[in-house]
Design a protein that fits this description.
The structure is a homodimer of 425-residue chains. With 425 residues, the first copy, chain A, is an alpha+beta fold. Chain A has two domains: 256 residues, BirA Bifunctional Protein, domain 2 (2-Layer Sandwich), CATH 3.30.930.10; 100 residues, Anticodon-binding domain (Rossmann fold). In chain A, the strands form six sheets. In chain A, strands 9-10-13-11-12 form a five-stranded mixed beta barrel. A five-stranded mixed sheet of chain A has the order 20-19-21-22-23, sandwiched between helices. In chain A, a hairpin with a 5-residue loop joins β14 and β15. In chain A, α1 crosses α6. The radius of gyration of chain A is 25 Å and the shape is elongated. At the A-B interface, β1, β2, α2, β3 and β4 of A face β1, β2, α2, β3 and β4 of B.
Amino acid sequence: MKQSRLFTKTSKEMPADADSANARLLIQAGFVDQLAAGIYSFLPLGHRTLEKIKTIVREEMDVIGGQEVTLPALTPKEPWTAAGRWTEPGKEVMFQLEGRSGKEFGLAFTAEELVTPIVKKFANSYKDFPVLVYQITDKFRNEPRAKSGILRGREFSMKDLYSFHLSEADRALFYDKVAEAYHKVFKRCGVPAIYTEADGGSFGDASHEFQMPTESGEDLIYVNDAKDYAWNREIVEGIKNGDQAPDGSGTVTEMKAIEVGNIFPLGTKFSAPLDFKVTDENGVEQTVIMGSYGIGPSRVMGAMVEAMHDDKGMIWPKNVAPYHVHLVSLHSKDEQILNRINSVASELHDDLITAGVEVLWDDRVGVNPGPKFADADLIGLPLRLVVSEKTLNEDSVEWKERAGGEMSLVKLEDIKDQVIAWLAE
Amino acid sequence: MKQSRLFTKTSKEMPADADSANARLLIQAGFVDQLAAGIYSFLPLGHRTLEKIKTIVREEMDVIGGQEVTLPALTPKEPWTAAGRWTEPGKEVMFQLEGRSGKEFGLAFTAEELVTPIVKKFANSYKDFPVLVYQITDKFRNEPRAKSGILRGREFSMKDLYSFHLSEADRALFYDKVAEAYHKVFKRCGVPAIYTEADGGSFGDASHEFQMPTESGEDLIYVNDAKDYAWNREIVEGIKNGDQAPDGSGTVTEMKAIEVGNIFPLGTKFSAPLDFKVTDENGVEQTVIMGSYGIGPSRVMGAMVEAMHDDKGMIWPKNVAPYHVHLVSLHSKDEQILNRINSVASELHDDLITAGVEVLWDDRVGVNPGPKFADADLIGLPLRLVVSEKTLNEDSVEWKERAGGEMSLVKLEDIKDQVIAWLAE
């Protein structure tokens, strides 16, 4: 993609209404645009990153047998009355509205009451279980204070997976499978999330969250020595940094963190009021046991910016960066040299794309090196390659990774293979 | 995909509330579920077909330089007041609601007022034009009578592309490019759509629709002899079947049809009230000229069912069928033969998937051939392959295309290559 054709531009000005680092950087880099508090448009660069996160989530849900559906956002009142959520939490959380003839609708903020009647229509033998259904759609919340950029929106993207079982043991087995899938999702995204024990909220039982440590996090978690398990403050009241871990495995470190995913045992909270019962293989009628499992791709994207940026801009890992490579060609006053720069850059652009590397080529003429480098740092693609008179004097391209490391020169004849090897690392 | 794992099932019963052939067949085959009038859930098979249509649309939009974004569905009142649409059509078309503190929102039914201010922020030099932006998201309409299944929903998927130009000539040039891209989209989907001259509606100028002839269509069009151009009744009042074509090119045939796409010149209807002006390359300030271009993937899916079904079920073309092949393995009372049937089917399933062929394998045990064949006809995958005692006696698989043609036997050693060749046709 030629940057001269990208319709968005970066901005040096800090947006007046940015309420967080993620909002500020994503807006300045042209990834998103704020339409209202908690309501964002995803522009080409932001759209690409969001879609990559969604694709990783989708792939891992498919691996564990999830079947993808798309449920509506605009939903009639009726299904929400079964478990009482039309009134509790009701308008506190759900946008409610009237259509023609006074018909009442709500905008889905979750989907237990929508998916359960559908599964109930089809799953009527024990052989049909477990049933694993998910969707990746925008959800809506009537937030009292929409803030923190795309971390907490009134409209936000959400992957919600629901599982249906005939025994608690089967539910527990699948719960661990989802936890494993979530670990893979976050690893592929480059998000260092920690599996965290948490309160079950309105559902009673314990649940788990995936928490990403970052200074701007709203949650407080207590992490074990191995840094692979933590406890949310809400379940370990009075604990302090350095105290013994609740499981006796050593001491805990207090960290601020952002929740990027959660898994919940639902028990029969929704299946009981919806009268979803099936006879199990022993001939015993069981009220179906459910679990629900969420990851918010837009929230993950915001959390990544919070945790991975510096004073120059964002720092995207390979798998979710909008493009892998920022190819920057510089100006020369010598027309012959300029032509060489442009033809080398153009050829490299085409070669890399043919090899499956995604390239944003800053081909803009009349823009000085300083602003070009500042743009590359702000947008934060993982690898920057510079073609200039200086690098061509060495038959080379300048190589610089956004996450750190030294600049180096790579010979023109080697650059393509080296990029491909780097991408496959 | 093993059919025994697919959580949906077909139904022999006609749904009581189906208002059209597409609703009836899509519900019976388990592609969709109706939540309320005009509001449908897309279940795994329907979700796959809808995503395939969206992917084809996306690819062709990218070819003509479209840049994909995702704009919100939940939008504040303010942008909609600029061109007056908050009140006209207002609630007649737009779902409107209140959030906390009485803040007014509308659910986007289109996005001119959302996308124009964004493009205005970035495009301020003639070098930035044209700008071509699109999204594929769900839109919402407060329909007085939601009907015709997924053809006319309260919530529906819509690809909306917007173009921005500094001259009418450039706009007209792009208009033709979009028309060409739309022809490609419909050709790839297997939809025989006819380019149809239509009224510009509230935008004044003439516009074009893509109309798919089918008996259940709501529109009446007059098609030329070459069957590649038509006129919507609204612009040729009083014309009759067999009359001379408006362009003098012969006679016209009257047909019922469903609109599956449209392209509109917008002029300055939105850019003028939003004060979007840019100095062109001649130094003259121009109010930006816009075009808008729609395709509804869910509507296309519904139209395809209307036009392509028989009394047994749906008939999907290869490119948008949820799977390419319906592999059906039959029962045998002889356990040894049954094992052979299942191992041949299993191997073929795996081989085809490895070769990139999408297979739904009806592996259900205890289901008779009759219901299995009825299911295959109802779901309508383009190619049915049967493995049974009878076919294995001939070292063969039975080959039957859903769209017609004879049954034949294909030798086991040839079947994989023949399927791959058929898919590439």
